[in-house]
Amino acid sequence: MTADELRNAMVDGVRPSGAALSGRVDAAMRAVPRHVFVPEVSLERAYGPDPVVTHRDGDGVPVSSASAPGTVAGMLEDLDVHPGHRVLEIGAGTGYNAALLAQLVGPAGSVTTIEYDEAVASAARAALSSLGAAVTVVHGDGMIGAPGRPTFDRIVVTAGAWDIPQAWWEQLAEDGRLVVPLRILGLTRTVVFERAGAVLRSRSVVEDGFMPMRGVGAVREQNIRVGAGPDLVVRLDDDRQVDASALRGALDHPVAVCWTGVAVPWGWTEHLDFWLATLDGFCRLLVSRAAVEDGRLMAAKGPWGSMGVVEGESLAYLTTRPSPTDDAAMPSYEVGACGYGPRGADLAARLAERVRDWDRDGGQGVQLWIEAYPADAGRPEVSGVLLAVDKRDSRVLVRVAEQVPAAV
Predict the structure, then answer these.
(1) Residue 389's CB: how many other CB atoms inside 10 A?
(2) Claim to verify: residue 180 and residue 233 sit in the same structural domain
(3) 383 phi, psi to nearest 5 deg
(4) pTM for this one?
């Protein structure tokens, strides 16, 4: 198949949130050749459904990639770009997304993209230039905003952001829209924010995964091994401390398991992690396949580990088992918690009770509403708030969507 045929087939298969693309996004994705931005891979892979890693650091860790076409399309739909808009992109990556934005804003609009890594910025600039795309590529730190402090109708962030920096508040126009994969206690959600004065209010909240942002003020994830090997890793998203040496003995204790009676199709638990995040010691635990296969540890709930808690010499995390009501057409799994250490049973019971709370609060049907305020804007009303998280430049409130947020 030719590049044009593969590109059209790619767009035909993109259905963000199960819906067909809008006409403008559809036309942009058919017009921009994705393979120009990932020249190292085959045409088939360039137009495939998966992300493509394009740059790695000295340790081989990916630092830049072309996001999956479905993710790109979904963010463009969320951004709702119109001709004439001024758009700021944080994280140029390959430049593909900026090229799509240039198509959407047209000649009356403008696109500025900021990339932290000089080599990545240079490659994106070259690819965009080869297509004649009217995009300003800035090598710099996206966390301090665009040079000259212009305002933008739309800001889109293509990396996991721990905070909403002051520069973004200053450069987003009133009634503007910010689409950002926001990290909240280690939980990443792509949030579509609209600005109304001194508050950003979400229009949608979708679970997704992105590489963490780099730059001034960026917060790296901590990965703390329990013991000498990679069998169990505690992942934290902030500066909290865990005594890994104290946890080594936890695995010498028999496992304590607490099943919840909550069964869900495919084991999918929409936004459950936010209920668990209200517990002290909340974190993600990564469990190696080898430790599960030889029976040393129970499997984590998902392939990327499971949310859980750590306290002193003990820990617990979520696990699953096939539900008695399982059927071949739609497998169902019961959610449980397994604990290790002298207080493992207590921690497992705490996790299990929060799973039941989530189920009582709406379970699979629950929707979240996220608000963000500048850190210096005073203390917003927090009644009915599920979670309140203070960051350097902002305060983030997570509510259950059915609860109407207080007026500002």
Answers:
(1) 18
(2) no
(3) -65, 135
(4) 0.89
The yes-or-no verdict on residue 376 having pLDDT over 50 is yes
Q: Distance between alpha carbon 198 and the CA centroid of its chain, in Å?
A: 24
Say if residues 155 and 167 touch (Cβ distance below 8 Å).
no
Residues 60 and 84 in one domain: yes
Beta bridge partners of residue 52, listed in sequence order: 66
Q: Which residues pair with 305 in a beta bridge?
A: 302
- Tokens for 279, please give them: 């517990």
Same-domain check for residues 66 and 116: yes
**Which structure tokens are listed for 380?**
């917003």
Q: pLDDT-derived band of residue 213, with 50, 70 and 90 as boundaries?
A: confident
CA-CA-CA-CA dihedral for 41, 46, 49, 54, to nearest 10 = 60
Q: Name the domain count of the chain.
A: 2
Catalytic residue flag (residue 332): no
Q: How far is CA 302 from CA 24, 157, 289, 305, 347, in A?
A: 36, 26, 11, 5, 19
* Strand bridging mode 110-115 / 136-139: parallel
Q: Which residue of the set 17, 64, 65, 67 is catalytic? A: 67
CA distances from 346 to 66, 129, 342, 349 (A): 43, 59, 9, 5
Among positive and negative, which fits the CA dihedral 152, 89, 101, 202?
negative
In sequence order, which residues have a C-beta less than 8 Å from that of residue 174 and are 6 or more positions away? Answer: 195, 196, 197
Residue 405: band (very low, low, confident or very high) from pLDDT cuts 50, 70, 90: very low
Q: Are 395 and 385 in contact (CB under 8 A)?
A: no
Q: Which residues of 260-294 are buried (b: 16+ CB within 10 A; e: fewer)?
A: bebbbeebebbbbbbbbbebebbbbbbbbeebeee
The three-class DSSP label of residue 78 is: helix
372 token code pair:
């963000």
Q: What is the pLDDT of residues 258-293, one digit of tens each?
A: 999 999 998 889 899 999 999 999 999 999 999 999
Considering only residues 55 and 265, tell me which one the structure prediction assigns the higher pLDDT: 265
Residue 213 lies in a domain: no
Do residues 128 and 263 share a domain? Answer: no
Q: What span, in angstroms and rounded, lies between the C-alpha atoms of 256 and 349?
A: 9
Looking at the structure, tell me whether residues 30 and 163 fall in a common domain. Answer: yes
Domain assignment present for 405: no
104's enclosing H/E stretch is helix 96-105
Residues 78, 202, single domain; the answer is yes
Same domain, 174 and 286: no
Residue range 12-25, pLDDT digits in tens: 998 876 677 889 99
CA separation for the pair 87, 287 (Å, rounded): 41
